[in-house]
Amino acid sequence: MRTCWESFSGYALRALGRGYGERLLPRGTDISFCDQVALIGSGLIWNIYFAAVAIALGFFMATAVALARNSASPWLWRPAAAFIFTFRGSPLFIQFFFFYSAFVLLPRAGIEIPLGFTTLTLQTSALTTAQVGGLFVLILNTTAYSAELFYGALKSVPKGDLEAAEAYGMSGFTKFRRVVWPNMLRLAWPSYTNEAIFLTHSTTLVFLSAFPARQQSGEAFYYARYFVDQTFNPFVAYPLVAAFFVALTLAIVAIFGRINRRLNRHLPQERRAKFRFRPQYLR
Amino acid sequence: MFSYCADPSVLDGWWWFSCFLTSATHLDFYRAFGAVIALLLVTAPAALAMGMAGAMMLRSQIRPLSMLGRFYVNIVRGVPDIVFFLFVPIALGQGIEYLLHLVNCPDWDQPVRQGNDFLVCRDAKMPPVDAPAWVRNLYAFAMAILAFALVFGAFVANTLHGAMQAVPHAQIETAESYGMTRKQAFRRIVLPQMWLVALPGLSNIWQILIKATPLLFLLGIQDVVYWARELGAQKTSLYSYPHPDWRMWYFSILLVFYLLLTWASERGFSWLTRRLSHGQATAEGERLRRATA
């Protein structure tokens, strides 16, 4: 049996691959409580990676899609609405399966795009890994959900603020950057916090679906499932992963709360938009 | 299915497809879509009942009961759902087997958990050891429904509780001053009015429930996802209709199926909202009254 310290040094970074710590995962009766804590904790690295990158990129894409959705031109708002409907109306679980089975059909050598003077080779083999392909699906998914929130917020930007901006002679991008966008973020932020929380929770689905976990490096819930399969005891690993996620959720609430305070700093206390934890599980 | 399908090697074009799409496994695939709908139709009332019980508990004047309700609602809502979906069926299954074990085999002296094994005596196995396959499937399906009802019941409880609070308190006071008891006031005043307030929340939960159904696959049930993977995979043997990797097409069918389902239920709920708004003292009810007058 390993000591607790050995478990941590062996498994705390195991999720990154075989080269980090022990090659093999603990098996059968050899599994100790510390193994479970260390390995599930190391899986959290990937949850944070998926969530952080998806939220960071999805944020800007969502702004663009929300603007397109809000535009008067049907060439812009119809595709945007269709995109939002497709990704919000179907289960994320099925989206993972669909995109994975589409990615494996791409040629392994990559797609060559002739540009005249040179040829651009798109590396497609990476798309079948969870770290790239799964992330791609998560980005599209959070883009659609956040775009819907931002679109709602765009529609409720105070009329007076827009008129004031015009009275000051602002127009076009200046007006957007200084008046529309900050207002949109401020209004959407409480629900966007919820979106970030549930995106983080749904990173547990990545390895549960089609994307394979190479070298047994997966996210926290992948390891929890591994332990339950090995020990046939759901009363340790699942509560552990739940506890880790509660901690992660609290961290997100803290970070987003700071941003919310900054976005609302010009408003009196009682007019500030407040965050309410509104679980809207499963996508 | 058709008589000309006996020898797939001589078929081509439309004939090949008509045989391929009516093979026994494909019929199972189509039935799995029915199973999704069946699951929704069974789970929705179950979750509604659980939610109603939860909301009544939250409202209860008896302190332990209201605390139990709060515990139920908060614990389920605070933990990633997927953990519950995988936890509940296993934990419940082991719990049932353990209880049966205590009842059926009182003279069993070994511990139930030995190392990594969960051992109960033969009579305590659930479903029974000699049960036919369909009983096993049904048992797994029932466990899944219980897990769904438990998780979604907590969401519904929260929504219904909020809706009950939203009914103007003055109306309840008026009812009581007319001599109604607490129960009567609840049944005659609160219950009929709360549904309209609860409807947006319930519609939301229903959409989430629809999108949760593919998780059946994780519980080892042969659902749409299982069949799409199975049928779409590359086939080489002559008698199983050889074809390349078609999984993408099968999953795009699932995507369309779920989009249709969410789209149709959105329409359904907006129709229901209009219906329930008739005669209500809300903006929509007022708009409907003006339209007819």
From TrEMBL, chain A:
Residues 44-256 form the ABC transmembrane type-1 domain. One of its GO terms (biological process) is transmembrane transport. The keyword Transmembrane helix applies. InterPro entries: ArtM/GltK/GlnP/TcyL/YhdX-like (IPR043429), MetI-like (IPR000515), MetI-like_sf (IPR035906). The chain crosses the membrane at residues 48-68, 235-256. The keyword Transport applies. It is a multi-pass membrane protein. GO terms for cellular component: plasma membrane. Keywords: Amino-acid transport, Membrane, Transmembrane, Transmembrane helix, Transport. It is found in: Cell membrane. CDD domains: TM_PBP2. Pfam families: BPD_transp_1. Belongs to the binding-protein-dependent transport system permease family. This is Amino acid ABC transporter permease. It comes from Pararhodobacter oceanensis. The lineage of its organism: Bacteria, Pseudomonadati, Pseudomonadota, Alphaproteobacteria, Rhodobacterales.
From TrEMBL, chain B:
PROSITE patterns: ABC_TM1 (PS50928). GO terms for cellular component: plasma membrane. It is found in: Cell membrane. Residues 33-265 form the ABC transmembrane type-1 domain. It is a multi-pass membrane protein. GO terms for biological process: transmembrane transport. Keywords: Membrane, Transmembrane, Transmembrane helix, Transport. It holds the Pfam family BPD_transp_1. The chain crosses the membrane at residues 29-50, 71-92, 138-157, 189-209, 248-265. Belongs to the binding-protein-dependent transport system permease family. PANTHER family: ARGININE ABC TRANSPORTER PERMEASE PROTEIN ARTQ (PTHR30133:SF2), CATIONIC AMINO ACID TRANSPORTER, MEMBRANE COMPONENT (PTHR30133). This is ABC transporter permease.
